[in-house]
Amino acid sequence: MMALMQSLVALSIDAMLPALTEIGQDLGAKEVNDSQLIVTILFLGLAFGQGIYGPSSDTTGRKPAIYLGFSLFLTGCLCSLFSTDLIVMLSGRFLQGLGLAAPRCVIVAIVRDQYEGPAMARVLSFVMTIFIFVPAIAPALGQGILFVAHWRAIFAALLSCGILTLIWFASRLPETLAVDRQIPFTFARIKQGIFEVCSHRVSLGYTISLGLISSAFLGYLSSAQLIFQKQYQLGTMFPLYFAILALCIGSASFLNGRLVMRFGMQNLSRWSKRFSTTISLVFFLYVISMAGHPPLWSLMLYMMIILFCFGIMYGNLNAMAMEPLGHIAGMGAAVTGAISTLISVPCGILIGHSYNGTVIPVISGFAISGVLIVCVMHWVESTTHS
């Protein structure tokens, strides 16, 4: 159930990738790159929404926060479904992101209510495995809908999935936060929670690392349709190539769920970040030598390696960031999620809007974020070891 609710986030992001150009043309987008905002604006809603649901889930319980989020998500789906211009579409997408912040944030708190340490990383890795399976098929679903219907049918499908998921959640999942653990909602407590997360070097460092990973991934995600369909002229084959890359993350998350209990979160994250950063720097130099247009096989091989490493790191970094925050799991999940998303959204938009017909902006995003992650995690681990 947790995986399905997380997957709704991925479905809302990726199902419309094949339709971005068509949506932009129908709604009067002035520039080709403006259509990328249909993807990135949802992440902005995710960032702001997590500040709402985390504290409220600590106060009223996990389920009421999910109900509020799904209400906003369904409203956003309706808004996008009946949009007549790009502004209305983006408003609906922001509402969808604002609503999806509930499962994005509260699910971590629900898992933290029942698990901690490597066990939590293991659960999150399996959730992430299913979560990534959806991006593997979401563009194909979107492309399939476009074959038989208008792009608005994609939003109708999202609306239906949201309703069905909400019904399942309401009828099957018990409340995981006991009444005696609920904390009164006050702005002073929110301020204290933010201060605690930001003043704890381990939580802050791994949260920043999550944001940097997400920055590079969001830059790739918003540019993927232009890279594969326009630059490499794959046309309707784009969903297949996108699926292969998405499955690399999913298989890594699944493998991490089996390895983390044996090798530990830090060791797996450390070697993944070192390897991915080295590969990114080498491939960046190769891409420059190829004037930003490397052979498709080399780009796919590089992306498969990088996204596999990201799949290893993501669940572990999330669990390590939450490890010291069990007593404020809802607030902790909200703050770490909001900080990482507020880092990733502007950086991801910058990478996406820098697309110039070559893969240089995307590859440079992976390389720069890799170097920064190495620096941040060294800062965290040097303090931990000392």
From TrEMBL:
<dbReference type="InterPro" id="IPR036259">
    <property type="entry name" value="MFS_trans_sf"/>
</dbReference>
<dbReference type="InterPro" id="IPR020846">
    <property type="entry name" value="MFS_dom"/>
</dbReference>
<feature type="transmembrane region" description="Helical">
    <location>
        <begin position="37"/>
        <end position="53"/>
    </location>
</feature>
<feature type="transmembrane region" description="Helical">
    <location>
        <begin position="94"/>
        <end position="111"/>
    </location>
</feature>
<dbReference type="InterPro" id="IPR011701">
    <property type="entry name" value="MFS"/>
</dbReference>
<keyword id="KW-0812">Transmembrane</keyword>
<keyword id="KW-0813">Transport</keyword>
<keyword id="KW-0472">Membrane</keyword>
<feature type="domain" description="Major facilitator superfamily (MFS) profile">
    <location>
        <begin position="1"/>
        <end position="382"/>
    </location>
</feature>
<feature type="transmembrane region" description="Helical">
    <location>
        <begin position="234"/>
        <end position="255"/>
    </location>
</feature>
<feature type="transmembrane region" description="Helical">
    <location>
        <begin position="329"/>
        <end position="352"/>
    </location>
</feature>
<feature type="transmembrane region" description="Helical">
    <location>
        <begin position="204"/>
        <end position="228"/>
    </location>
</feature>
<feature type="transmembrane region" description="Helical">
    <location>
        <begin position="65"/>
        <end position="88"/>
    </location>
</feature>
<protein>
    <submittedName>
        <fullName>Bicyclomycin resistance protein</fullName>
    </submittedName>
</protein>
<keyword id="KW-1133">Transmembrane helix</keyword>
<feature type="transmembrane region" description="Helical">
    <location>
        <begin position="153"/>
        <end position="171"/>
    </location>
</feature>
<dbReference type="Pfam" id="PF07690">
    <property type="entry name" value="MFS_1"/>
</dbReference>
<dbReference type="GO" id="GO:0022857">
    <property type="term" value="F:transmembrane transporter activity"/>
</dbReference>
<feature type="transmembrane region" description="Helical">
    <location>
        <begin position="123"/>
        <end position="147"/>
    </location>
</feature>
<feature type="transmembrane region" description="Helical">
    <location>
        <begin position="299"/>
        <end position="317"/>
    </location>
</feature>
<feature type="transmembrane region" description="Helical">
    <location>
        <begin position="358"/>
        <end position="380"/>
    </location>
</feature>
<dbReference type="GO" id="GO:0005886">
    <property type="term" value="C:plasma membrane"/>
</dbReference>
